[in-house]
Amino acid sequence: MAARGKSIAFARIRAEVIRLVALIPAGRFTTYGSIAIHMNVIARHVATVLSHLTPEEAAALPWHRVVSANARLSPNMDPKLSGKQRRLLKAEGLRIDKEGYIQAADAHFHNVGVRRDIRWSEG
User: Using one digit for the tens of pLDDT, what is the confidence trace for 63-93?
Assistant: First the structure.
């Protein structure tokens, strides 16, 4: 992973994920997949970027507004971090059931945009 993390393509992907996540308004959410489709990458790329934020980036970025498919908090996330995500989303007015699904998801979904035709490895 370290070698990929230093590639120009990965740096560009990382910067775009951070830019898009910063644009998600309070009280709204999007999914890893929605960002990935918009960027023409896979959802795992988005998840990897968000799971490797620096403490400063995590404090400044609304990372908690990105969830798994079907408007669900990731069941694979560290329980402490998942609890923090749940608290932050609830503080913004979102309702989340016991299984981690956001209720009334359509009313709160943030569409990042249509698929972009991007080749990340090219200048």
Answer: 999 999 999 998 888 999 999 999 999 999 9
* Residue range 11-57, pLDDT digits in tens: 999 999 999 999 999 999 999 999 999 999 999 999 999 999 999 99
Question: Given its phi and psi angles, is residue 103 left (phi above 0), alpha (psi -120 to 50 degrees) or beta?
Answer: beta
Spatial contact of 46 and 77, defined as CB atoms under 8 Å apart: no
- Please give the torsion angle defined by the CA atoms of residues 69, 112, 13 and 33, in that order, rounded to the nearest 10 degrees: 10
The 3-state secondary structure of 79-110 reads: HHHHHHHHHHHHHCCCCECCCCEECCHHHHEC
Beta bridge pairs of residue 96: 102
- 107 Cβ contact partners less than 8 Å away, ≥ 6 residues apart: none
Catalogue all structural domains in the chain, each as residue range(s) with its CATH number: 2-108 (1.10.10.10)
